[in-house]
Amino acid sequence: MLFALVISFDCFAQDEMALKRKVAIGRFSNETQYAKSVFYDKNNDPMGKQASDILSTRLAASEKFLLIERQDYDKIVEELNTSGGVSQNIGADYLIIGSITEYGRKTIGTQKMFSNSKEQIVEAAVSLRLVDVSTGIIIYSGEAKGEATAEDRRVMGLGKTADFDATLSDKAISAAISKLVENIINSCMDKPWKAYILTVEDGSFIISGGQSQGIKEGDTFAVMQRGKTVKNPQTGLNIELPGKIVASIKVDMTMGATPQDEVSVASLTEGEIDTAKLDQYYIVEKK
User: Fold this and answer.
1) Residue 110 burial (CB < 10 Å; 0-12/13-18/19+)?
2) Structural domains in the chain (count)
3) What UniProt keywords apply to this chain's record, in alphabetical order (predicted)?
4) How far is Cα 245 from Cα 269, in angstroms, rounded to an integer?
5) What is the pLDDT of residues 171-190, one digit of tens each?
6) Among the four 77, 133, 135, 203, which has the fewest Cβ within 10 Å?
């Protein structure tokens, strides 16, 4: 069945929409030897969980992303390994994989005639990779180091003393991650926002994404038909050539209780969409 209307794209200009990208924070491992004992469980590593939580907080604070819950990203990794790109099925645009590559702490003390001091120093290095889920290609990779210090001083035997400050670990890891977050944000936002046509019901198109992403009733989007896929003989990778605009849709309503299950109902306003080949199309913002 083919939906068709007379096509005209003169009105494609519209105000820029702040549509949020969906991001899944995947494996965040501790590649150092710190805190690893005989009973160490790599699936329940406290430092990896700590780093993941810090990254999640930083990304959420930017208000540019919807973060996929932990139980979902294992499924994303599995799907990526089997199909090479499943954004339209899982609902994530990007997957972040991270690791703590260096971690160390030391104490430096100075002794004078009437005073002494002790400085605690923690250094950490974090590596992050950003994967475009639709292609499985790494679009950003970076590593940064962070440092945190604390000092206590005693004069004539008076003053504070302290054991090792455990919060320094948080601060050092946070400092390293903070240096990478801006690059992560820019890499995501430089890529065009996309949604996918999931199905057609009674002439209405059900597309991925909803209110949490910033989609509103009355919004209009361009429908792109995928370009031809060719293989690069130098890299062996398949490359999808640029698509072309073939239609326009308008959002009639949004549905769903959580960002993971939100969808929007849209109607065709211009162009044509072959409903038997919905996997050949994707939705983008109008320019």
Assistant:
1) exposed
2) 2
3) Cell membrane, Lipoprotein, Membrane, Palmitate, Signal
4) 13
5) 999 999 999 999 999 998 88
6) 203
